[in-house]
């Protein structure tokens, strides 16, 4: 896989989970009383029963997905996306571990299963953004 394809596939992935987060049957209600409270609790639940989300979180997924999808069209944009995604999602993963920041200060849940998902996504993005060489000769990908 190339950085271009990573940006494209991650964009499509985040758009898909952003959309799925709005579907009530796929998002289950929290079942425990130990979940941290949210200021914005609209749509709060667990995507696939594993990943805590709310409406703001879903919108962020849609925006990140759009960013990845559009960045995959250009050599420099792909590199910027991979590097920016790595930094952003690494910080979000660390915040998700901290009790005071695990809900981004009450706005959206980034704790629980999100921490591992964000770390894995950041690690893959780090590979394409900082280690692997970009291939600008791909058809349709301008340098």
From TrEMBL:
Query: Which chain regions cross the lipid bilayer?
Result: 7-27, 47-67, 79-101, 107-131
Its name, as the record gives it, is DUF4383 domain-containing protein
Q: Which UniProt keywords apply?
A: Membrane, Transmembrane, Transmembrane helix
